[in-house]
């Protein structure tokens, strides 16, 4: 899907993810998670709660308490880790903005931390050691949504959705919940009609710089 004249031709940074951490504009949509091996998992639940859980039983030992209010978790480029609602307003945050390129990480002791570029801790859940390392190693699957502002993807379209509200997060949600979707592009209102449009794509695409668009990749 290409629209109009692109301001520049280029390649977006390749999508990559470390299983235990979130970096710039990596989001956790409902049911996406990062893991530390077989022992700990950080999951954005379908009910809006961001939760830390342990080993094979995935028993909860810490959460943001945002069930019923939250929607998705986001590691912002300014260094703040937040849980947003579907209106894109923060309902919980670590308050670590002002540290560009900071990252969030699930430590091997079970703590969820935000660290600056020197790996100094800016915020912590302080849950290290509270859960005994015991696991049946049932799996360490993870999935994150890497979001790119100002990029448009060409090719791979298999579904287009007219959005009731102009929110790129809604487009990211539709892609993250569809096993066929590998990438997406959000088109603001007024470009393809009165409503915002969400293009779901089933394969890697060619990227074009376009300041109007928001695109993303599901990374496993």
Q: Report Rg.
A: 18 Å
Number of helical elements: 1
* Strand/helix succession: EEEEEEEEEEEEEEEHEEE
Distance between the termini: 24 Å
Content of β-strand: 35-45%
CATH superfamily of the largest domain: Bulb-type lectin domain
CATH architecture of the largest domain: Orthogonal Prism
CATH topology of the largest domain, what is it called?
Answer: Agglutinin, subunit A
The CATH class of the largest domain: Mainly Beta
* Most strands sheet: 10 strands, antiparallel
The overall average pLDDT, rounded, is 88
Would you give an account of this structure?
The protein has about 220 residues and is mainly β. It has two domains: about 10-15 and about 145-220, 3-Layer(bba) Sandwich (Hepatocyte Growth Factor), CATH 3.50.4.10; about 20-125, Agglutinin, subunit A (Orthogonal Prism). Helices cover about 5% and strands about 40% of the residues. The chain contains one helix and 18 strands. The chain has one helix spanning about 170-175, and strands at about 10, 20, 25-30, 35, 40-45, 50-55, 60-65, 70-75, 80-85, 90-95, 105, 110-115, 120-125, 145-155, 155-165, 185, 195-200, 205-220. The strands form three sheets. Strands 1, 3, 8, 9, 10, 14, 15, 16, 17 and 18 form a ten-stranded antiparallel sheet that branches. Strand 12 and strand 13 form a beta hairpin. Mean pLDDT is about 90; it is low at about 1-15.
């Amino acid at each position: 899907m290409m629209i109009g004249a692109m301001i520049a031709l280029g390649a977006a940074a390749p999508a990559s993810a470390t299983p235990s951490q979130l970096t710039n504009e990596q989001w956790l949509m409902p049911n996406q998670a990062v893991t530390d091996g077989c022992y700990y998992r950080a999951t954005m639940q379908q009910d809006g709660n961001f939760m830390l859980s342990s080993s094979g039983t995935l028993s909860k030992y810490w959460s943001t308490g945002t069930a019923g209010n939250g929607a998705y978790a986001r590691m912002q480029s300014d260094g703040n880790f937040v849980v947003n609602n579907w209106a894109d307003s923060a309902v919980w945050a670590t308050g670590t903005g002002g540290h560009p390129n900071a990252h969030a990480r699930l430590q091997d002791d079970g703590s969820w931390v935000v660290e600056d570029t020197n790996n100094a801790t800016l915020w912590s859940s302080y849950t290290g050691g509270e859960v005994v390392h015991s696991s049946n190693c049932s799996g360490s699957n993870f999935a994150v949504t890497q979001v790119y502002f100002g990029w448009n993807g060409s090719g791979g379209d298999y579904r287009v959705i007219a959005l009731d509200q102009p929110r790129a997060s809604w487009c990211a949600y539709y892609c993250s919940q569809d096993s066929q979707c590998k990438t997406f592009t959000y088109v603001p209102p007024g470009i393809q009609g009165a409503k915002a449009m969400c293009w779901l794509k089933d394969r890697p695409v060619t990227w074009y710089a376009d300041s109007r668009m928001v695109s993303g990749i599901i990374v496993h």
